[in-house]
Structures are given as structure tokens and as C-alpha cells.
From TrEMBL, chain A:
Protein name as annotated: Phenylacetate-CoA oxygenase subunit PaaB
InterPro entries per UniProt: PaaB, PaaB_sf
UniProtKB/TrEMBL annotation, chain B:
Official protein name in the record: Phenylacetic acid degradation protein
One Pfam family here: PaaA_PaaC
NCBIfam families: PA_CoA_Oxy3 (TIGR02158)
Example GO BP: phenylacetate catabolic process
Gene3D superfamilies, sorted: 1.20.1260.10
One GO CC annotation: cytosol
Amino acid sequence: MVEATPLWEVFIRPRNGLSHRHVGSLHAADEVMALQAARDVYTRRGEGTSIWVVPSLAITASDPDHADEMFEPTADKIYRHPTFYEIPEEVGHM
Amino acid sequence: MSEAFVTALLELADDHLVLGHRLSEWCGHAPMLEEDLALPNMALDLIGAARGLYARAGEIEGKGRDEDDLAYLRGERAYLNCLLVERENGDFAQTMLRQLYFAAFMEPYWRAAASSDDPVLRGIAAKAVKEVAYHIRHAGEWVVRMGDGTGESARRMAEAVEELHRFTDELFFSSPAAEAAEAAGLLPVRAETRGAWEATIRTVFAEARLGWPAQVWAQQGGRAGAHGEALGHLLAEMQSLHRAHPGAAW
């Protein structure tokens, strides 16, 4: 069964104006069935207004073994964070 | 008039409760997790509609019977559901075909019920019409995939058609009570949904490469309380808790 039915990644947009977020995965024979299954599995409590399904095979993921070279070099570049500005009082909460 | 309307509402409610219970039997037994959620989802839609219909029937009847009394304290001969919905689940092909047959009938029926003279029924119909539209889609896609799938799935789908098609005629039959309610403008005329039903089924069958079944003897009797063996077992299981513990609540 599992071999015959490919894996799909499910993305759901909770409200208009927000972006689709990854919520999980499921097995389905094709894109039509994947969309229905996503509706039945992931929107039972009114979680969404729009669903995307993507074949898991179509996703290229970064290799956890390369995490050091991929992500660590940013750790000491604190000047990339907008924390060196003083926000005038009048601006209030940002 | 109100007595006939109560009876006709019970026919409709029994269809929904019995089919909802049948689908709930798949819970924990479906062939894959995705369907294990999808089938109870549909069951809850149907049982939700049944609750509204029982409540309305009890209200009009005015004898103080609530939805639980009507669902749990009527015996097999008092149940008025059509025979199609009580058929056992069989395999996945039979379950999905039964669902498609019923949903393809209810969709035009609920649409027509939008102009019922009963405001409560209009409300139930407005909610249910969206639910059954999804049931048609879900069951229809499965029928297409099984009918036009492997040799094994195509054989099972063809067997399901042979097994279940003879129960579809009863969907369009109106009991004397239903006829009276239809004439009074309270319920849609069952026979008038046949065109839409057949169009839906023929579209799915064509895509599923299923042949249209030859004319067979149409099984009827459910509206008069004459059921098959299957319903008694279903009711025994469904009603046993309430009969052992009358008034049990969550």
C-alpha cells in the first residue's frame, strides 16, 4: 500500500492574507486524492481556507550534515539584525 | 397533514442515521489512515443531518419525543429508511458506491428543499447540500479510481454495481406520507431528482469505465418498514447502550 501510494506534503493557509504553512504529510495515489485527503485529515477543525499539496519527491531539502557550513556563519553577524536603531517615542509600538 | 410530514421526516432522518452508522463502522478499520478520517467525517455529516431531522419531527409530532427517543427506541419495523443505506459495508468498493448513489440523490434533493415551506428544513438543507456535494466528489473519485484501476479493483467495482444497483430505484419512490408532504410543498418530489442523479452516476461510470447495469428487479420495502436482515443487527448494536442505560448522556 505504502509503496503504491506516493507521499505528499500539505500546506494550509489559515486565513486570507496569511501565507500557506506546512502542516504535515500524507499518502495518496494522485494529486486529486491528495487534496481530498488533506481536507479530511488537516482541516477538520476549520484550520484552513486554502490547501496546497506537493509531491514530497519534488522537495529538495538541505542536508542536516551540512548544517555547520550552511547556517553557522550567520551567527556572528549581529549587525544584520535591526537592533541598532533607537526608535523615537512617538512611533510607539512596532 | 402534520402526521404525514412527521413520517416523511422520519424516513429522511432514518436514511441519514443508518448510513451514518454504517460509515462509522469503518472507523479504525479503513484501508489507510486518510480514509479512516474521511469516512467518519462523512458519517458525522450524515448523523448531524439526522439529528436536525429527528428534532424537527419530534417537535411537529408534539408528543414529547426527542431525537434520542426517535433514534434509539424504535424497533426495526418502525425504521423507515430505504434499503440501500442499510446494506452492509462489504468491501471498500461497495461502501464507496453506496455513498455515491446516496449522495448523488441527496444533492439535488437538498437543493430543491431550499424552497420548502418548512423553514427548519430549509436550514438543514442549506447546510447539508454543501456536505453531500463533497461526498459525491470523494466517493466519485474513488469509484473512478477503482473502476479504472487494476484488474482486481475493476472486478470488485463491477461486483459492487451488480450488488447495489437494484436498491437505487427506491430512492425515487415516495411513500403515501412523503407524497402528502410533497403535495403540501413541504418536501421536494423524489421522482424529480432522477434526471440529476442519473447524470451524476453516468458521468462517474463513464470515467470509471463501468457499464450501465441492465434493468434489474428493483428492491423496495424500506419505507414500509420491511427491511433486510442487515438492519436488525445494525440497530441492535446502535441501540443497545441506550436501552441498557435509558437516558444515558455524555
